[in-house]
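Check this.
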Amino acid sequence: MFKKITNACVKLVQRFLPDPFIFCIILTIITFVAAIPLTRQNPLQMVLHWGNGVWVLLAFSMQMALVLVLGSAMANSPPMKKLLKALASIPKTPAQAIVLITVISLLACWLNWGFGLIVGAILAKEISKTGLKVDYPLIIAAAYSGFLIWHAGLSGSIPLGIATAPAAGQAIVNTGGVLTEAVPIGSTVFSWWNLLICAGLFVFLPIVNVAMHPKGDDIKLINPALLKEEEEEVIKTPETPAEKVENSRILQWITIILAVVYLIRRMTSSGFALDLNIVNMIFLALGLIFYGKPILYVRAIAKAAKEAGPILLQFPFYAGIQGLMVGATAVAAGGTGLSLAAVISNAFVSISTRVTFPLFTFLSAGIVNIFIPSGGGQWAVQGPIMMPAGQALGVEPALSAMGVAWGDAWTNMIQPFWALPALGIAGLGARNIMGYCVMALLVSGIIICAGFILAGVVIYG
């Protein structure tokens, strides 16, 4: 029965899911049309919201492109290839391979989502090269499924954001002015109910991924073109001054020392808090170390950059969707004063009780995340709505905040936005893996909902 549902999801997605960019355009149209009647804004106002939002994620777009490019270049370096081949040789059956990939991806994403986004995909690709008869789209989907846990881990932007003490007399940003004291990660990331949900995913997600593996002729192996070993870079003896500079290990190590000193200083002064910039700096330093010569690293980056095109194209459009979701017009100007995201959030708040509020916060955040897949962007929209509402009902700030955090992570399974780096590394399209991700969404949704219901009942029931 489970396999039949999986096959149905895979076939449905492969038949109807368009290219991620086309999916993005469709989301833009849906958001545009829905916001007009629900927020009482006119088309011109919505156009302005869209245009004002298009370029607000430029820095983030560059960060994500570098996650893919630097991570891919590092993974293709000779030392990393040896390490990955050693890890890839561990599993002896498809089931072992899928379990290994899922667990590593979950753990990596819990530790740091930027690193976790690509490490699973890189290892999955390497395992597929060993000749093990494992379904390639499924194993890449299993690697991506680990991303479910990122916002409940050590790099989650919401728990880290509310754990930072506000300035004297001020409220924590994006909480509607209701939080004037920090909420420690012991109450969010390391709370019993959050750890219980995480444990549920560590137990059941590998089982679900294994259960989805096709049989016989339905197994899709890795494309033979991806199996070809790239020829070793042939470096001729430097002759001209320019060639000698290009191959200078001294220049390489000066740059490496700069990066390493910065990383040490940053971590000793600010703690071991990994954000995207730090992750990319680590990738950059390791890449320089592993390639040894500047010109070799330049060529590796040039090859890896070919996969970054979809990110550069799509992220501005998702920023535009975010603009449509958060754009509001004052009542005096004919609007409701509410954004579309606020309308959705308020609808769930209106049917919530103290016990069910964390659950409905999670579900509303899951819906909003489809249109605003940036965790920080979503918190800016929902934080000022859900935090005061939770406080009015007497719900702990940690529960309200983590409801938004889990919802933001949950529907990433049906949102191609975050899959782009993994897909770029794997050489696949979104429709190749999203059918499997739908099943991960359904099963994880049950686990997360059960966790929040249990938390509500135990704490307030």
User: Anything to note?
Assistant: The mean pLDDT is 88.
